[in-house]
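[agent] plan:
  1. take the single chain provided in the ticket
  2. run structure prediction with default settings
  3. attach structure tokens to the ticket
  4. add a short note for the reviewer (M.T.)
[agent] executing step 1
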Amino acid sequence: MTDIAAIMQTSAVIPVLVIKDAAQARPLAEALVAGGLKVLEVTLRTPAALDAIREMKQVPGAIVGAGTVVTIDQVAEVKAAGAEFIVSPGLSQPLGEAIAAAGIPWLPGVATAGDIMRGLDMGLSHFKFFPAETSGGIKALKALAAPFYQCRFCPTGGITEASAPDWLALDPVLCVGGSWVTEGTLPEIEARARAAAAMKRG
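[agent] step 2 finished; step 3 output follows
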């Protein structure tokens, strides 16, 4: 997929994955995809992350992206690993230019009106609202989304299985990011993924 909007609309929930052992990556991806969650964000928070992306790419149906991308060097690394989209905790023009040059869909993090305006100046309209809960929660996103009616969001950070439906009920929210689906054994993860995949937007 070459369009971040299409990726965001594939699943109501995007699992945010912190993988310490690349050997666990493929079985985890298989469980999530079997449960109906095809879009997987592997965060660059561990030395195993790039290998985990490569492993997950072997799973049929998986759309594997790289999260916590904060430097231009990382853009080249995740592209080489086969990442199909990039998620970053914030937004900067140099990083955005590098990602655009790499031809990879980008979901940058925003938390303020200024962040969103800088994104609009760069031709962007889809953002990660991060960190969602500590940035004011649903009330804050509602307030931000009103003047930026053309924008769509993926709230991430503090989202739980219990709170996700409330976020997804907001019109500007296409999906949410969360780590709760990766808790437990592989059968439990598949069950959590199935429940998450059944969540409705709007």
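[agent] step 4 note for reviewer: Residues 186-197 form the longest helix (12 residues).
[agent] ticket updated
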